[in-house]
Amino acid sequence: EGWTVRVGGLPRRALLQSLREFGVRLNAHAETLLEHPAFDDPESRDLQFVERTVQQLGLSAGGTQSQVFEAARTLGFQLCPVVSGPFLRLAMMDQPNAPDSVLSAGRAPTGAIHVASKPLSSDEAYPKGFYLRVVDDEVWLRGYRCDDTYEWGPEQRLALVAP
Q: Chain-centre distance of CA 34, in angstroms?
């Protein structure tokens, strides 16, 4: 269960080139995250990822991001390094189309997989992380912002690092 992906090992320019070559669309928040020093020259490593819903993490009514991440850690999962977002996107190009085409609605997008990672900044204006989504056959790597009052629904899907 789960999948192994090689994360890192590409300097930012090469990573952006790969995303372009594969036709991956980026939103402004993803572009902001990709400019972070974490992407200067990330170390290469193989990580074992799993996908879980918030409900599978034991939060049947959902929860805030910090509650969701804490529930994942309690079950032995680790948060993904933030640099895994684009590498997961490139590894999951066959993700199915989302059931709707709404790109931004102030709520969790349908059909998205959030890459659960520790926020790079406590500034609420700075994007918190990436999510993967396919909309109308366009493959997206999108960044998102939220504060800790935002409730993640029980059906929201997360990528985590397996224990």
A: 13
d(CA 160, CA 163): 9
Give residue 24's pLDDT. Answer: 98
Burial class (CB in 10 A: 0-12, 13-18, 19+), 28: exposed
The rounded distance, in Å, linking the Cα atoms of 51 and 83 is 17
CA distance 19 to 155: 28
Name the phi and psi angles at 12, rounded to 5. -50, -50
Torsion of CA 34, 162, 23, 136, to 10 degrees: -110
Chain mean position to CA 116: 6
Percent of the chain with pLDDT strictly greater than 90: 79
Place 71 in a pLDDT band, splitting at 50, 70 and 90: very high
